[in-house]
Amino acid sequence: MPWVSLSVTNSGNFRSCCQVSTADGQGLLKSERGTNLHCEENEVKDIRNHSLLKRMRTDLLAGKKFPACKTCWDQETYGVYSKRLGEIDRMGPIFDELDARRITQEDGEISEDTPIYAIDIRFGNNCNLACRMCWPGDSTLWYSDFVQLRNTNKFTIDEVSVEIEKNPSNKWQLSDKKLFSWHNESRFWNQLESHAKTLRHIYMAGGEPLIAEKHYNFLQLLIDRSIAPLVTLEYATNFTVLPEKAIALWPHFKLVNLGISIDGTSKVNDYVRYPSKWDNVLKNFDKLESYPSDNLVCYVNSTLSALNAHKCLDLLKWYLERKKSGRRYPKNICAHTVVSPPKLSPLVLPHEIRSRLLSDFQSLQKSEEAAQESDRDILYSFEQYESNTTMIASGDPSPLLPEFLKETTKLDKIREESWKNLFSKEDVDLIESHLMSDAQI
Ligand code: SF4
Predict the structure, then answer these.
(1) Mutate to test the pocket of ligand 1, among 126, 144, 208 (most ligand atoms within 8 A of CB)
(2) Where in the chain are the domains?
């Protein structure tokens, strides 16, 4: 990554890699004065030999574990296919360790003209949803709820304090209106244009990347210059929108990977991914069925939290039904269990609910043995659920149920919803009895 990739945070700051934590400033590229290097004010060539990147290169080539890369190293310890391993595999054919050793000087410096093959861009925080586990740094729709929920109008992003305020028409907005709008300006796109001919992989997230209008112009530029057939596009989308222009442009590219974030069906989806509507998501899946090329790989990324883990098999069953009825999409489901913040982890739920999830999964797995044997994507999805449900059922119980419910109930009041509608009456009683027995709230 620190040789041939470029990563930009959603407030436009250059960072060493999208996997490093920027919350404590570890991965941000900073000036000597300590300010963030920003894609509107700094040239890409000026950051190629930033001291942080040089240190990363020398450490990686020496086989040392660079501290900011902790997420990847930790994942690999548990056998998880980390971003680091993914990048090594993906970049291997065009840039491998031998290339890195060849072009890197002893102090980690490389030529400013070294091609950029991959970019990772988060298009600000413009989003049409305010998902339960999200926040204003990733979604404009979170502003009002955040102020009411946290009793503050301030938050910090990339080590910069930001204020939310009401404008004259009584709408919530940021005091610094330009903070997340850099991708609407031409400076960044002009810089990217000068690297267009070597680009092979573009990862895009947000906010919601499919509503980031300017990026479609860049896709058109790649098509006009005949670069598109060499480029893989990758999106992390909530899939509540599927613009016609995306469907028209994508077939020109080598590959389009659409990672769709869905955390449940029906009312679970509508509650967790507020204020999306499950029927609307379904319509977009149906629309995708007539996609006019075979260059699209679409998979569901499902995050299992205390809000939806108990209902996650509904999503797996929905996927199975689609596969069995011959639908092209989604190809499979990847599942991830929430670890941070710990109060959102499914481990806060009573053990009875967590162990029932595992036994229900095992029954489903047994009844669908034939489908798993005949379809590798179905098998993969079951494997994803097996590791996650096993982890959820067997993990040490978390004492954070009161904290989880306190915040959830407060947000429920703001949104006029109730977490109790997601659980059966028996499970609500069980959860409440655990609260009482712990006498924690
Ligand atoms: S879709 Fe993504 S960015 Fe938008 S609110 Fe949900 S989690 Fe946040």
Answers:
(1) 208
(2) 5-115, 140-174, 309-441
